[in-house]
Amino acid sequence: MFNSNFVTLKAAMDVALARQEIHSQNIANAETPNYKRKYIEFEEYFRESTMKLTLKRTSERHLPLANKKVVPKIKVQKDTTLTNDKNNVDVDIEMVEMVKNALKYQTLSRLMTSNIDRYNAVVRGVR
Amino acid sequence: MNEFNIMTISATGMSAQRLRIDIISNNIANSETTRTENGEPYRRKVPVFQELLRTVKGKVENGGVIVKEIYEDRSPFRIVYDPTHPDADENGYVKLPNVNVVREMVDMINAQRAYEANVTAFNTTKAMITSALQIGR
């Protein structure tokens, strides 16, 4: 009954929340020696999975293509160094990215509400 | 992963920076202390931060930051010629703590900024959770 909008929105919101955790961790460790910033890769895999060609089933007995679940991957950026203590967290960039991510999350939750509203309109009957 | 863990991460960041400001205040307050319990002048103290990772049900989770130890700076004491000082040696030199107040002030501003960054992160998380609570309203 419910279309994949909910699933897609939920996945995107989960990732935004996971990103927020990573940003918090990076900011908390902005002064920790040898700490390397973490980041999440997700959209890259997501795009790949939705754009992938699907196989046509010519017989009912063919196995359906397994729906590959996209999971966010936490990565560590090891190759740069910003300060003498080998830490590479740039607090300014981290803050900007965090605010961008939060706004994205708020947009997604607004979208989720309007999605639910549409179902409500159908269920109650629009007059 | 849950949203309250994110808030705890920011909280560890805040308390670590606050402990750092505590230590810096202590360093500045003792910048002229020539007598401590072990008989030598006060030594500058520095907190050592470490990333905190928690293992929950076999999975490693981000836990923020922790102050691993409070390290005593082993750099040499400042030596000042002041024969009238009660702690002066036979040549009239006094050993003063290895605290550089200017450096402490710089560190303090740094810690304050880092604290504020953690507060901002916390507020952002709070705004996100509030917006999630508005879903369906």
Automatic annotation (TrEMBL), chain A:
Q: Which InterPro entries match?
A: Flag_bb_rod_N (IPR001444), FlgB (IPR006300)
Q: Which domain of life is it from?
A: Bacteria
Please state where this protein is localized. Bacterial flagellum basal body
Write one Pfam family the protein is assigned to.
Answer: Flg_bb_rod
Q: Which residues form the Flagellar basal body rod protein N-terminal domain?
A: 12-36
Instruction: List the keywords (alphabetical).
Output: Bacterial flagellum, Cell projection, Cilium, Flagellum
Q: Which family would the database say this protein is a member of?
A: Belongs to the flagella basal body rod proteins family.
Under the subunit heading, UniProt states: The basal body constitutes a major portion of the flagellar organelle and consists of a number of rings mounted on a central rod.
Function text: Structural component of flagellum, the bacterial motility apparatus. Part of the rod structure of flagellar basal body.
Identify this protein by name: Flagellar basal body rod protein FlgB
Q: Which organism is it from?
A: Thermosipho ferrireducens
Automatic annotation (TrEMBL), chain B:
InterPro entries recorded: Flag_bb_rod_N (IPR001444), Flagellar_basal_body_rod_CS (IPR019776), Flg_bb/hook_C_dom (IPR010930), FlgC (IPR006299)
Predominant location = other
- Give the Pfam families listed for this entry: Flg_bb_rod (PF00460), Flg_bbr_C (PF06429)
Q: Which domain of life is it from?
A: Bacteria
Q: Where in the cell is it found?
A: Bacterial flagellum basal body
Flagellar basal-body/hook protein C-terminal domain mapped to chain residues = 91-135
Annotated ranges, domain Flagellar basal body rod protein N-terminal: 9-34
Record keywords, A-Z:
Bacterial flagellum, Cell projection, Cilium, Flagellum
Family to which this protein belongs: Belongs to the flagella basal body rod proteins family.
Among PANTHER family, the record links this protein to: FLAGELLAR BASAL-BODY ROD PROTEIN FLGC, FLAGELLAR PROTEIN
**Whom does it interact with, and what assembly results?**
The basal body constitutes a major portion of the flagellar organelle and consists of four rings (L,P,S, and M) mounted on a central rod. The rod consists of about 26 subunits of FlgG in the distal portion, and FlgB, FlgC and FlgF are thought to build up the proximal portion of the rod with about 6 subunits each.
Q: What is this protein called?
A: Flagellar basal-body rod protein FlgC
The taxonomic lineage of its organism, from the top, reads: Bacteria, Thermotogati, Thermotogota, Thermotogae, Thermotogales
